[in-house]
Each structure stands twice: as C-alpha cells, then as structure tokens.
Amino acid sequence: MGLLRIMMPPKFQLLALLAFAVAMLFLENQIQKLEESRGKLERAIARHEVREIEQRHTLDGSREMPLDESEDVVVIYNRVPKTASTSFTNLAYDLCGKNKYHVLHINTTKNNPVMSLQDQVRFVRNVTSWREMKPAFYHGHVSFLDFSKFGVKRKPIYINVIRDPIERLVSYYYFLRFGDDYRPGLRRRKQGDKKTFDECVSAGGSDCAAEKLWLQIPFFCGHYSECWNVGSRWALEQAKYNLVNEYLLVGVTEELEDFVMILEAALPRYFRGATELYRTGKKSHLRKTSEKKPPTKESIAKLQQSDIWKMESEFYEFALEQFQFVRAHAVREKDGELYILAQNFFYEKIYPKMN
C-alpha cells in the first residue's frame, strides 16, 4: 500500500482511500446484517421449541399429577451486568445435569431490562405454569418483577449479586471497548475507541458520566417508571425494600465465594457441589475485561461528588451490610477456612404425646 501511495498521483490516492472506506463500510454492514439474521434465527428456533413443549403440555394436561413441592421451585437471578454474573451463572449450567434442574436464559431484545406489560404477563405465566421446566433456574439482565401483582400463589425465589458502583462502571467502560476473554472475537459497541476511563472523566464524556452509575438501584427497584429516573430517592428506598423483602440472598462480587457457599447451604437442591466447583473449576473466574486500567484517585473523587454515586454507594453499602449479617449467622472461620454452621434449632415439648 505504501509503494502504491508513492507511485499514484494524489487524486488517485484519494479515490483509492475513498474506495477502501466504502468497501469497509459495506463489509461492516454485511456483518451487521448477518448478526441480525443469526439473532432472528435463534429466536425463531427458541419460539419453535417453546411451542412444542407447550403443545405437549396441553395434550398431556388431563393426565398430569400435581408437582411434588420440592420440584415446584423456580429461582430467578436477574443479573446486573459486570458483577461476575457470567462466572456465577456457569456454575448453574455445570450443576444442572447432576442436580436435575433446568437453566433458562432470559434474552430480551437489545438487553432491555424493562419488559412490556404484555411480556410481564407472559413471563409470569411461563415461570409459574411451565411444569416441564421445573425446577428451573432463570437468569438474564432484567429488572425485578413483582409476581404478587399478577395474583400467583407461588412466587419464585430471587437472588442477585452487586458490585462496588465505580468498579462496575470502569469494568463496563473497558468491556465495551476491548471485550473480554470469554468471547474475544466478538466486536463490541465501542471497539476502536482507545480513550482511557481517566481521559473520559477528564473530558466530561458521556460514557463515564455519573448518570451511568445508575443501574444497580433500578435493577432492584423494578418495573416502575420512577425506578429509572436517575437520582430518585424513592427508587433507592424501593430497591432497599425489595432487597430485604423479596430476595432470598444478595451477594457482592468481592465476596462471591461466600455467596456461593451460603447458597449451597440454603438451596442444596440447586447448588449442591457449587462451592467445590467454584474453588476448583475452570469457569469460576470467567469474563475478565481486557485492557482494563484502574482509575486514578482524581477520577474517583470527581465521580464521588455526584449525588448519583452517593445513592448507588449507599445501596451497595446497604446490601453489603445485609450480606455480612447473613454470613455472620451462617458460617464460622477455623484455621483460615470458612465452614457452614450445622442446624442450631430443634423441637421439644411436642404435644399431645404420641403412643
């Protein structure tokens, strides 16, 4: 190319560059169309599989017996992006065969965490009545959905993991530009942008603005409009309420192994063997963001001036305190190792006496 540039007149050099640019745009457009076609095909196949299962369910409905209580259980992990959710979800995939449950990924269009009202109804109906898939572990980037609003008798068990807000934002910033080691060949939305997170903060860029921190609160707050109003105090309080009242357990990325250990003790039907798998398995620390550079103290200080960061930080600290409270009553440390406490309640003075 360099030799051609020397030999060609400037006019032809410009034409050659324009032709090259047009060719690259055409190729990118074709790649985009192929990816969209693949997505449509995957969704069509998924819909076909669902229809087949629902048809079998309809045909066999008259012969069905009620599910055993231990089987009529659904866990929903409405995972927040960039909180080690891929690593944790892969534990569920690795264990589902041995522990005999189904794992289903909730794939929303353009990863939109808010469902339409009609999709909320469909989702609630699927989760509660799709007996062929029970017991089930659902996971996806969707905000909390209150099943009690739909009049169901048996609500799912919610779990989740959150992360320090600034660390999560930094990880997501570089993920959009450089991807990760999970799918290294996949082209990301901001690929080619070499600007560091610090440079973005210094320039007042939109990708690193404090508003981008507003994510973990709305994921826990749910499908109310106020949840997605950036900086809403009501959304923060609703997220806290849901965390305490609607979630079985919420862990933190920084203490993920402890989260896995407590889940195994609380829900062995799903997580039996999870702790050992997390410690020894190859999938325990997947999806490390490439080219990630820690932010400077100046960048952190600038973000921490925002009321949005203060709210997200308050929510994170609230979740961390609650998790540590649960952990303190569930595990003990001995010789540097944590172990789960045995059952410490029993029944006595049972009347009337049995003969």
TrEMBL record:
<dbReference type="InterPro" id="IPR007734">
    <property type="entry name" value="Heparan_SO4_2-O-STrfase"/>
</dbReference>
<feature type="coiled-coil region">
    <location>
        <begin position="24"/>
        <end position="51"/>
    </location>
</feature>
<keyword id="KW-0325">Glycoprotein</keyword>
<dbReference type="Pfam" id="PF03567">
    <property type="entry name" value="Sulfotransfer_2"/>
</dbReference>
<keyword id="KW-0812">Transmembrane</keyword>
<feature type="signal peptide">
    <location>
        <begin position="1"/>
        <end position="23"/>
    </location>
</feature>
<dbReference type="InterPro" id="IPR027417">
    <property type="entry name" value="P-loop_NTPase"/>
</dbReference>
<keyword id="KW-1015">Disulfide bond</keyword>
<keyword id="KW-0333">Golgi apparatus</keyword>
<dbReference type="GO" id="GO:0004394">
    <property type="term" value="F:heparan sulfate 2-sulfotransferase activity"/>
</dbReference>
<dbReference type="InterPro" id="IPR005331">
    <property type="entry name" value="Sulfotransferase"/>
</dbReference>
<dbReference type="GO" id="GO:0000139">
    <property type="term" value="C:Golgi membrane"/>
</dbReference>
<keyword id="KW-0808">Transferase</keyword>
<keyword id="KW-0735">Signal-anchor</keyword>
<comment type="similarity">
    <text>Belongs to the sulfotransferase 3 family.</text>
</comment>
<keyword id="KW-0175">Coiled coil</keyword>
<keyword id="KW-1133">Transmembrane helix</keyword>
<keyword id="KW-0732">Signal</keyword>
<keyword id="KW-0472">Membrane</keyword>
<protein>
    <recommendedName>
        <fullName>Heparan sulfate 2-O-sulfotransferase 1</fullName>
    </recommendedName>
</protein>
